[in-house]
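Field reference: sequence -> structure
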Amino acid sequence: MNQTKENRIRGWMLSAGAAACLAIGVPVFAQSNGFAKIEDAIRYRQSALYLQNYHLGRLGAMANGRIPFDPKAAVEHAEALAAVSKLPFMAFVDGSDKGNTRAKPEIWTEKDKFDAGAIKMQEEVAKLNAAAKSGNLAQIKSAVGAVGKSCKSCHDDYQRAL
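Structure field:
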């Protein structure tokens, strides 16, 4: 099996797992109005952010010519990214700035600004999804750049350095 096919399969397995967790986890989250432990919230959002990074990374690699442009794969990654782009934000619960996390406390003290950044990123992801469906590589490149810019803005303001 070639590396691209393996990566695509791995990405879809991760996405399927996230979708299954969402299907099962969101009702439980809604019923319990939170996570059982702060560590669960941190792991949940880190997993969702990993999936976002994976799918955006694949789209970025196509846009930058590091891997061959595959219009079908671009749509699949863009759709997966759109699906997971909302997941991490339900897990920024009070107290989850402590522990194994790079989240800064400003997420909670500047909640309106943080939430606005999340919405901006989700809007840019929706545009990327539309660009991917167009099959136009120039539009995809532009949209990937806009998503990356919105992600970087949030990371600059709300993520501790390693």
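Note: The domain at 3-158 is CATH 1.20.120.10 (Four Helix Bundle (Hemerythrin (Met), subunit A)).
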